[in-house]
Design a protein that fits this description.
Keywords: Phosphoprotein. GO terms for molecular function: DNA binding. This is Response regulatory domain-containing protein. It comes from Corallococcus macrosporus DSM 14697. InterPro entries: Bact_response_regulator (IPR050595), CheY-like_superfamily (IPR011006), DNA-bd_dom_put_sf (IPR009061), HTH_17 (IPR041657), Sig_transdc_resp-reg_receiver (IPR001789), SinI_DNA-bd (IPR010093). By secondary structure, the chain is an alpha/beta fold. The chain has two domains: 55 residues, Multidrug-efflux Transporter Regulator, Chain: A, Domain 2; 115 residues, Rossmann fold (3-Layer(aba) Sandwich), CATH 3.40.50.2300. Helix content is 38%, strand content 18%. It is built from eight helices and eight strands; from the N terminus they run E-H-H-E-E-H-E-H-E-H-E-H-E-H-E-H. It has a five-stranded parallel beta sheet with strand order 5-4-6-7-8, with helices on both faces. A three-stranded antiparallel beta sheet has the order 1-3-2. Helix 6 links the parallel strand 6 and strand 7. Helix 1 packs across helix 2 and helix 5 runs parallel beside helix 6. The longest helix is centred in the middle third of the chain and has 11 residues. The chain starts with a strand and ends in an 11-residue tail after the last helix.
Length: 193
């Protein structure tokens, strides 16, 4: 499917909101857009889908899949393999990408625009708290839901994660159902078994 472009008026009709509301979303950086040489705003269909899923709004059929894109970051390959296996039954709802590097995750988040990230706190190149802080520092990444994970789960670590911008901090091994709920994955869709 090609990435269709939408005007603010197209989006306002599609979502049944005022065009000025769409403009405010764009100006605040919560809906990704670009301007034409004439100064008109344009939104790619993929960015509009991301916005709707992130903000728990229904995705109109003409925008295609309501799949949630997640990026899992852990320097231990066996942990990432376990996460992949755990999410496999939900392949119809979740598109999971993985990386073993916090630095690579910072590059991928701009490129792939995931709806959410699962980030290990203890990584050699850059720790998970710093990954969270750097993502939160980017206005255009404001809607990305961040969850940290650690084998050293304590109330202090949970608080540090939340201060860095994470929605939650989970103990390893991950509770997949809880992760799906935190990312608002539409579980009404049947999981592929």
């Amino acid at each position: 499917m090609t990435d269709q472009l939408y005007t603010t008026h197209d989006i306002s009709r599609l979502l049944q909101v005022d065009p000025s509301t769409v403009s405010k979303w764009i100006d605040r950086g919560i809906l990704m857009a670009f301007r034409t040489p004439g100064g008109h705003r344009r939104v790619r269909s993929a960015d509009l889908r991301t916005f709707l899923i992130t903000h728990q709004m229904p995705v109109p059929e003409e925008l295609g899949s309501g799949t949630v894109r997640l990026l899992a970051v852990d320097d231990e390959r066996p942990v990432l393999d376990a996460i992949k296996r755990a999410f496999k039954p939900f392949a119809a709802q979740v598109e999971l990408q993985t990386t073993t590097s916090g630095v690579e995750a910072l590059l991928l988040v701009s490129e792939q625009k995931p709806h959410g990230m699962i980030i290990d706190l203890n990584m050699p190149d850059i720790d998970g708290l710093e990954v969270c802080r750097r993502i939160r520092a980017r206005k255009q990444m404001e809607g990305v839901r961040l969850i940290t994970m650690t084998s050293a789960h304590t109330p202090e670590v949970v608080e540090q994660s939340k201060q860095a911008g994470a929605l939650a901090c989970m103990a390893k091994p991950l509770d997949v159902q809880q992760v799906l709920e935190l990312f608002r994955v539409p579980l009404a869709l049947s999981a592929k078994r």
